């Protein structure tokens, strides 16, 4: 019987919280690595456009996806070792009661290593890499667009109207691609950068900062991570025709013949870029 004001923290609930924490951490890290793999894949496909049929093969794509799911459990090993189920004995009206809760061990170097790995390797380093690659991709999108503009400038005056229409389409593709890259980058930084900074400060300043600051923003950062995942899906669907086509093919394989793969000439800005970068 639980009396009013009496607390109950059973072992099963603590075990569930511990499992949920590790499970969410692994798959959130996997989503970060998938986002990073996609950015690197774009970079390789555009930077080495003449060799992308060799470098960007289906086998290597599968290896990149597999690595994005294999590495997170390895990187999260310090978290597995640091956080555990702890007990506390409290006096209730019915007598002494053991409360089970999830907490970390604050002694030893493993506690510091955990926050350094979490902050630097899982959060801050991907933020830096994604920022550099995204800015480079945006620059290449506009360089490719300018290259197409110069090529079309040599076309005779009799086809000026058609050339203008094609250039407008190319400009729209470049703008759409740029907006998508900026939006993905902004959402990623807004979600992961605060966690990385707070994790780094927790490793440097110790338990007081972790309990006083990091815990206060934990639920907010979790909500941002969920929001980021939901918005990214909508963003890709709204701005990438090829993503929509692929999603339809995956969801309705029985009707795959109704949605043939989009031709290269009507693909998104990134695919157009691969065929137009000199």
UniProtKB/TrEMBL annotation:
It is found in: Membrane. Keywords: Membrane, Transmembrane, Transmembrane helix. One of its GO terms (cellular component) is plasma membrane. The chain crosses the membrane at residues 13-41, 62-83, 115-138, 180-200, 220-239. GO terms for molecular function: G protein-coupled peptide receptor activity. CDD domains: 7tmA_FMRFamide_R-like. Residues 1-236 form the G-protein coupled receptors family 1 profile domain. Its main location: membrane. Pfam families: 7TM_GPCR_Srw (PF10324). This is (apollo) hypothetical protein. It comes from Parnassius apollo.
């Amino acid at each position: 019987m639980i009396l009013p004001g009496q607390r109950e923290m059973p072992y099963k609930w603590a075990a569930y919280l511990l499992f949920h924490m590790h499970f969410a951490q692994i798959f959130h890290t996997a989503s970060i690595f998938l986002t990073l793999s996609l950015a690197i894949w774009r970079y390789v496909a555009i930077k080495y456009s003449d060799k992308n049929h060799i470098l960007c093969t289906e086998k290597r794509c599968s290896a990149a996806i597999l690595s994005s799911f294999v590495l997170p459990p390895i990187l999260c090993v310090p978290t597995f070792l640091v956080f555990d189920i702890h007990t506390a004995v409290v006096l209730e009206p019915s007598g002494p009661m053991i409360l089970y809760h999830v907490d970390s061990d604050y002694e030893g170097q493993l506690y510091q290593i955990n926050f350094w790995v979490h902050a630097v390797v899982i959060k801050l380093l991907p933020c830096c890499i994604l920022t550099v690659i995204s800015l480079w991709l945006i620059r290449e999108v506009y360089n490719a667009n300018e290259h197409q503009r110069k090529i079309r400038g040599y076309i005779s005056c009799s086809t000026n109207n058609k050339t203008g229409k094609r250039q407008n389409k190319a400009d729209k593709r470049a703008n759409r691609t740029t907006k998508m890259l900026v939006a993905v980058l902004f959402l990623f930084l807004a979600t992961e950068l605060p966690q990385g900074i707070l994790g780094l400060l927790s490793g440097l300043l110790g338990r007081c900062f972790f309990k006083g600051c990091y815990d206060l923003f934990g639920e907010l950062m979790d909500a941002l991570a969920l929001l980021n995942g939901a918005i990214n899906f909508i963003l890709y669907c709204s701005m990438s025709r090829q993503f929509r086509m692929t999603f339809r093919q995956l969801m309705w394989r029985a009707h795959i013949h109704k949605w043939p793969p989009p031709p290269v000439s009507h693909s998104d800005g990134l695919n157009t870029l691969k065929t137009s970068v000199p």
